[in-house]
Amino acid sequence: MSDPRTARGAWRLRADRARQVADVVRQQIADGVFGTGLLPDERTLVAEHGASRNAVREALRLLSAEGLVVRNRGVGTRVVARKYEHGLDRLAGLAEALHEHGPISNEVRAAHRIRPPDAVAARLGLAAEQPVVYLERLRWLGDRPLSLDLTYLAEDIGAPLLSEDLENRDVFALIEETSGMPLGSAEVSVQSVNADAETAAVLGVAEGAAVFAIDRLTRLADNRPVDLESIRIRGDRITLRSVLRRTGERA
Amino acid sequence: MSDPRTARGAWRLRADRARQVADVVRQQIADGVFGTGLLPDERTLVAEHGASRNAVREALRLLSAEGLVVRNRGVGTRVVARKYEHGLDRLAGLAEALHEHGPISNEVRAAHRIRPPDAVAARLGLAAEQPVVYLERLRWLGDRPLSLDLTYLAEDIGAPLLSEDLENRDVFALIEETSGMPLGSAEVSVQSVNADAETAAVLGVAEGAAVFAIDRLTRLADNRPVDLESIRIRGDRITLRSVLRRTGERA
């Protein structure tokens, strides 16, 4: 443990306290606690958190650096980016999950047949020579990009989608409509990574910005894997939510 | 769409292809496909992905920048950091979830009673004056830090833990043992953020490195909230996994 009586110890103590305060306030922002959009003033935060004014200022600086709040002299600290919540409780497309926040529009960057890498073919249960339908979509919510989705679809499932409204519809909904078969489940893995330069440029964030990198293999109700997606979601726009149970069943 | 016949278009095309290749290989690394730890050579990757040699090299550069592989001239590209998987299917402590990879050890940075911020008290269902037990633990797996956990516990639940082996045990297991009550469920929210300078220093990563910021409110089986945690997990060490069902029930 560092010693708070030394300069280094005092600095660390303040940094630790600032992080504690920032964690609480960040979650309050996520929960929509600040109805007016204005955070309490510094004096109130000092009293509320039992922290020094310097620690509170440092906490606000952290939240500002994350793009969650803007600090204006004389006005106070304003929430500028409440993140949208995407449930991890249930398999849902983005437009479906975020419908209450407005329509998702998709900038379709690619939509055609390709010969997939062997690794992709294997995960879709296809022989190496079989083509797949490849989609690349930059997905917008409001006036800002939300995610970049690379999608590999088994050909029989994907081909009918090429004449559908890919700009405004979720792939999940389109698959169920055109195939007449319901989706069943998906294996999802979520990573937190720094955006490379090109991904950052496409998503409209700074190079190195934290993003979710999600790999999702979706199966029809009969368990056949048909949709492999590689998704980058802006970390500053989405919170993933779930309810976990100790016993392992879904809450 | 950019035009691949222009220099900018060609660059973007290569960057897009590089990202596609990197996404596939990253998931293969996560799945433990490369048993020997060596990736296929460039020529094999070119054939496998139908990509240019430049795109494959750029993909390997991306994976190297993420700290997943190291490239050695003459030897090839070696996997150095397969991420550990932490299931999001079931409520489990870190030591419990990762037991097959080795023991978790906890550097206990704080363990004492505090008067919590009102926001914390409210989420734990406590009156503003009630103290809580505060724990701060830097959690190690092997020779590297994995996560920094800030924990607020209802006093009656947390106080008995202060005389327990916090260095080697999960808080979840200790709560169940000392209280005699099973845990029930937790509300979890997961964000992807850039590590601030102090968090980065504690976790042993570069400032700005992508980390998971997890907020988790855990309830006893009788639904009483007793454990509020704010967790930072190194993005380069953990993949969160889940199986989602279309119908909303746990897979």
Automatic annotation (TrEMBL), chains A, B:
InterPro entries associated with the record: Bact_HTH_transcr_reg, Chorismate_lyase_/UTRA_dom_sf, Tscrpt_reg_HTH_GntR, UTRA, WH-like_DNA-bd_sf, WH_DNA-bd_sf
One Pfam family cited in the UniProt record for this chain: UTRA
SUPFAM superfamilies for this protein: Chorismate lyase-like, Winged helix' DNA-binding domain
Keywords (A to Z) from UniProt: DNA-binding, Transcription, Transcription regulation
Start and end residues of each HTH gntR-type domain: 15-82
Keyword Transcription attributed: yes
Keyword DNA-binding: yes
Source domain of life: Bacteria
PANTHER family: GNTR-FAMILY TRANSCRIPTIONAL REGULATOR, MANNOSYL-D-GLYCERATE TRANSPORT/METABOLISM SYSTEM REPRESSOR MNGR-RELATED
Protein name: GntR family transcriptional regulator
Organism the protein comes from: Saccharopolyspora rosea
